[in-house]
Design a protein that fits this description.
It comes from Hibiscus syriacus (Rose of Sharon). InterPro entries: Rtf2, Rtf2_RING-finger, Ubiquitin-like_dom. This is NADP-dependent glyceraldehyde-3-phosphate dehydrogenase-like. Residues 3-79 form the Ubiquitin-like domain. This protein is of the alpha+beta class. The protein has 2 domains: 3-80 and 269-298, Roll (Ubiquitin-like (UB roll)), CATH 3.10.20; 102-261, no CATH class. It has 7 helices and 19 strands. It has helices spanning 27-34, 38-42, 87-101, 108-117, 141-149, 214-219, 244-268, and strands at residues 3-8, 14-19, 25-26, 44-48, 51-53, 58-59, 69-74, 130-132, 138-140, 167-169, 172-173, 187-188, 202-205, 211-213, 237-239, 271-274, 280-283, 289-292, 295-298. The strands form 6 sheets. Strands 5-4-7-1-2-17-16 form a 7-stranded mixed β-sheet. It has a 3-stranded antiparallel β-sheet with strand order 9-8-10. The longest helix has 25 residues, at 244-268. Mean pLDDT is 77; it is low at 78-106 and 268-299. Bound molecules: zinc ion (ZN). Zinc ion binds at residues 205, 208, 210, 225, 227-228, 230.
């Protein structure tokens, strides 16, 4: 009798695992065949109905019923996966904390400036690593990923469906400013030194993630990033916290990209992979997936 169950990935993809009756497997082994390196192995855990499962659990086990769904979740430091609070619980606290901090009324001018200093989701001071979405909003990556996994994203950010919709950015710190300083800009343009405080226009270069001021891009005419020299084209420039019109253009571009991806996916159809221990893996939604030495890499 085969044991078949599903694994839901952190990027909300579903993987079907089929275990032949003659096979045994630990969850640790399963995890290592799904994740790219040892570092990521320790930062994820399996959970069944919200309850963390030990990595040493041997499959088949009566605990995991035929056709049940395991979630592969990122560990949150201080809880989850080790018999402490579950990830889901700490995530809820985390987001509740942010919800309480969000003030009711904000001066529009203050709100505009606030977007440059704070995470668009939590309103907490920007803290690296930061990401932008495809509309040019800036987030603390951890906050955004947590909200995404907990399905707590407000409507305005529902276009963010996975890591593929985030662009890792590299901000340039103003030297001497300490992390989480609540007094004004923490970051600056690495070329002109203009502060990242809402008074100047800034662009993110999509391919390398560097954040530079519009002034620098205008003054130094170049088709390569001014910091890392990676080539870029006009459409790789993403305006940060742009005007309504600029955001509308970014939104249009995002929709176009999405339509294109859907077409490509249809062409490829379903993918069957055969991996160690003859686990049959059947992924749907392959955009964030690539194979490397018989391992499935989540991106
Ligand atoms: Zn660069």
């Amino acid at each position: 009798m085969q044991l078949q169950f599903f694994v839901r990935s952190p990027t909300h993809q579903t993987l079907t695992v089929t275990l032949e009756s003659t096979q045994t497997l630990t969850l640790r082994h399963l995890k290592s065949s799904l994740l790219p390196n040892t570092k990521s192995i320790s930062s994820f855990y399996f959970a069944l109905n919200g309850k963390p499962l030990s990595d040493s659990t041997i499959l088949p086990t009566p605990e995991i019923l035929h056709l049940s769904t395991l979630s592969l979740l990122p560990r949150i430091s201080g809880g989850g996966g080790d018999g402490g609070a579950t990830g889901a619980e700490s995530r809820d606290c985390y987001l509740k904390m942010y919800a309480e901090k969000k003030p009711d009324k904000i001066d529009p001018n203050e709100k505009r400036l606030g977007k440059w200093l704070n995470c668009a989701l939590s309103f907490e001071p920007l803290r690296e690593p930061c990401v932008i979405d495809k509309l040019g909003n800036i987030f603390n990556k951890e906050t955004l990923v947590e909200a995404l996994l907990g399905k707590k994203l407000p409507k305005e950010f529902r276009h963010i469906k996975g890591l593929k919709d985030m662009i890792n950015i590299k901000l340039s710190k103003i030297s001497g400013k300490q992390a989480d300083a609540a007094d004004g800009a923490m970051f600056q343009c690495p070329i002109t030194g203009l502060e990242f405080n809402g008074k100047y226009r800034f662009f993110a270069l999509k391919n390398c993630g560097h954040i530079v001021s519009a002034k620098a891009l205008k003054e130094v005419k170049s088709s390569a990033c001014l910091v890392c020299h990676k080539e870029f084209v006009e459409s790789d420039k993403m305006v940060i916290n742009g005007s309504e019109e600029e955001v509308a253009i970014l939104r249009e571009r995002m929709e176009e990209e999405k339509a294109k991806t859907t077409m490509e996916k249809k062409k490829k159809g379903e993918l069957m992979l055969w991996m160690g221990q003859r686990i049959v893996v059947n992924w749907k939604g392959m955009k964030n997936l690539r194979m490397e030495r018989n391992r499935v890499m989540l991106e």
